[in-house]
Design brief:
Layout lengths: L13 H11 L4 E3 L5 E3 L20 E3 L3 H10 L3 E2 L4 E2 L3 E7 L5 E7 L10
Parallel strand pairs: 3-7
Antiparallel strand pairs: 1-2, 4-6, 5-6, 6-7
């Protein structure tokens, strides 16, 4: 029935962010036409959190070793939103995108779901 998910990141400079995902993060991609790149995302999982405010969506990249990942990405010129912080459920920072947005980046300390069988 459902065979995948499609995440959309809205950007003030989509071309710069596409270049970032292609050249800096090295994500495999297809060209849907006219340079409109669609990237293969790493395995993912979905969590539903309660809120008293306006419902929203967020996108986080996950890694096994946040310090090592930050060091490697830093060598590629990636700018972070701040130092890693311990949130209890994991170590967290953020990546600044060239188009003005940001993505969360964290090392989970909770059980992960993306390796579960279908």
């Amino acid at each position: 029935m459902i065979n995948g998910g499609h995440v959309i990141l809205y950007s003030r400079d989509a071309e710069a962010d596409r270049t970032f995902f292609r050249d800096v993060l090295g994500y495999p991609h297809v060209d849907a036409g006219g340079g409109w790149l669609i990237f293969k995302a790493p395995p993912g999982e979905l969590a539903v959190h309660p809120t008293d405010g306006t419902p929203a969506q967020e996108f986080y990249l996950m890694c096994d070793d946040l310090a090592a990942t930050m060091a490697e990405l830093g060598e590629r010129g990636v700018e972070f939103t701040g130092p890693a912080t311990d949130q209890g459920w994991g170590l967290l920072t953020g990546i600044r995108l060239p188009g003005g947005g940001q993505l969360g980046l964290y090392e989970p300390r909770h059980p992960i779901a993306h390796a579960l069988p279908h």
